[in-house]
């Protein structure tokens, strides 16, 4: 069932709009503030948004800008009591789909909303300007590698496979490639979004619509085997450029017979591998600053060193998408600068506290252990290498287990000389 987000603080109007939405066979979700609306939009996807400009906590235009900054923004219909030309132009510039003045004529809204909901998401006009390559931030070596392939993909219209964990920026990268490759239409098909019985028809529609343009297939590993065959056939005809994203392990899927090997090779003429955010904490200062600017363009919100340390200590399971939300949280709760750890979402601060607790616990245990070792006659105090060996032994045993008992992988991951590691393993753990 399609879902419509209604961001409106006037209870009676929100209730009337909910009735219109239900009448169209869609599910209304109401938020009475801008921040509440943004949080709901982060948690689930919506097929349309009805947005009041005069909200109690922030301007609806700011909400619109934040919504439109997402990678696949829902179409937004603006409702306003202040119908200035400026607002209308700004709303259009920011990519609003429609603009209605209060008092609302519900009979006028209903057909417009119906038309919008009947359009497949991939066909909803994306009125916002095409992405600027400078919006993809990253300085880490792995990101630079990804950027090099993205640059090649912008210059040559070959199929591109973009892989990486959810939220790492695969869609953003694909949009940059499509936008920089020329003004051709971009049609987006999200494979895991459609029930099996509709997926075939939707894919055919998208293939048809994208002729002469670009088709972006998101989460390509979720395509059924028959639809993979359809895609292979379409790609051999070459009527459109195909870009595909995947956060699923396609090579494993090939071994399991769940993904066609020939399709994998057809798609991965160029392969952009986007690294997880936790592996590139060096990118956090620039990314966090840009995402804070994106969330609050007219505020200056530098991050304190403590807040940055907390960001760097966090695992980022949701990758950049989670950082986007975290920075929106900061904008909502931080009234003065700089941003302190207490302005960050709880999960991030808790992890930071936990890891500093663990560090303190390790220090305490080390002091107690040293006390015991050193409170004896000076002649009996172990030498430094013996002390170090005692610490290194459990450390190496634990590390090796985490890398499947493979010293080569462990050495590479720790940036350690392989011969040195092998010697230590032999001496300390008796491993050959
Ligand atoms: N390098 C980056 N610089 C700036 N913003 C980024 C970057 N990477 C991702 N983002 C932002 O993070 C959010 C998530 O990105 P995106 O949707 O492209 O991820 P994804 O890998 O396609 O996710 P999924 O696998 O769930 O489809 C978007 O708001 C995007 O603009």
UniProtKB/TrEMBL annotation:
Every Response regulatory domain range: 3-117
Alphabetically ordered keywords of this record: ATP-binding, Nucleotide-binding, Phosphoprotein, Transcription, Transcription regulation
Superkingdom per UniProt: Bacteria
Modified residues annotated as 4-aspartylphosphate in this record: 52
SMART domains found in the cross-reference section: AAA, REC
All copies of domain Sigma-54 factor interaction, residue ranges: 136-332
SUPFAM superfamilies for this protein: CheY-like, Homeodomain-like, P-loop containing nucleoside triphosphate hydrolases
Keyword Cell inner membrane belongs to the record: no
InterPro entries to which the protein is assigned, alphabetical: AAA+_ATPase, AAA_lid_NorR, CheY-like_superfamily, Homeodomain-like_sf, HTH_Fis, P-loop_NTPase, Sig_transdc_resp-reg_receiver, Sigma_54_int
A Pfam family matched in the record: AAA_lid_14
Entry protein name: Sigma-54 dependent transcriptional regulator
């Amino acid at each position: 069932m399609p879902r419509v987000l209604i961001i409106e603080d006037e209870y009676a109007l929100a209730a009337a709009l909910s009735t219109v939405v239900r009448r169209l066979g869609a599910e209304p979700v109401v938020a009475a503030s801008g921040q509440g609306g943004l949080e709901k939009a982060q948690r689930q996807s919506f097929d349309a948004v009805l947005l009041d400009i005069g909200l109690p906590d922030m301007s609806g235009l700011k909400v619109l800008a934040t919504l439109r900054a997402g990678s696949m923004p829902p179409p937004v219909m603006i409702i306003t009591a202040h119908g200035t030309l400026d607002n209308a132009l700004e709303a259009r510039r920011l990519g609003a789909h429609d603009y209605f003045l209060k008092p609302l004529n519900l009979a006028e809204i209903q057909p417009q909303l119906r038309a919008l909901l009947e359009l497949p998401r991939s066909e909803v006009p994306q009125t916002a300007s095409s992405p600027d390559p400078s919006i993809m931030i990253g300085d880490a070596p792995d990101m630079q590698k990804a950027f090099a392939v993205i640059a090649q993909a912008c210059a040559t219209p070959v199929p591109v496979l973009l892989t990486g964990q959810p939220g790492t920026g695969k869609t953003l990268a694909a949009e940059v490639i499509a936008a920089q490759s020329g003004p051709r239409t971009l049609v987006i098909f999200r494979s895991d979004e459609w029930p099996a019985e509709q997926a075939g028809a939707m894919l055919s529609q998208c293939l048809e619509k994208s002729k002469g343009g670009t088709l972006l297939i998101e989460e390509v590993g979720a395509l059924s085997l028959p639809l993979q065959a359809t895609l292979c056939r379409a790609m051999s005809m070459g009527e459109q450029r195909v870009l595909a994203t995947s956060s699923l392990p396609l090579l494993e899927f090939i071994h399991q017979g769940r993904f066609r090997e020939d399709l994998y090779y057809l798609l991965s003429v160029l392969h952009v591998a986007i690294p997880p955010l936790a592996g590139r904490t060096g990118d956090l200062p620039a990314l966090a600053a840009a995402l804070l600017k994106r969330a609050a363009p007219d505020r200056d919100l530098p991050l304190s060193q403590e807040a940055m340390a907390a960001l760097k200590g966090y695992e980022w399971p949701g990758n950049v998408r989670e950082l986007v939300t975290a920075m929106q949280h900061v904008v909502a709760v931080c009234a003065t600068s700089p941003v302190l750890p207490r302005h960050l979402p709880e999960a991030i601060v808790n992890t930071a506290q936990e890891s500093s607790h663990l560090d303190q616990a390790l220090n305490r245990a080390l002091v107690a252990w040293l006390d015991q070792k050193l409170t004896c006659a000076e002649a009996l105090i172990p030498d430094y290498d013996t002390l170090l060996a005692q610490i290194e032994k459990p450390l190496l045993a634990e590390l090796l287990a985490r890398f499947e008992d493979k010293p080569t992988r462990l050495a590479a991951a720790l940036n350690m000389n392989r011969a040195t590691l092998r010697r230590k393993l032999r001496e300390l753990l008796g491993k050959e």
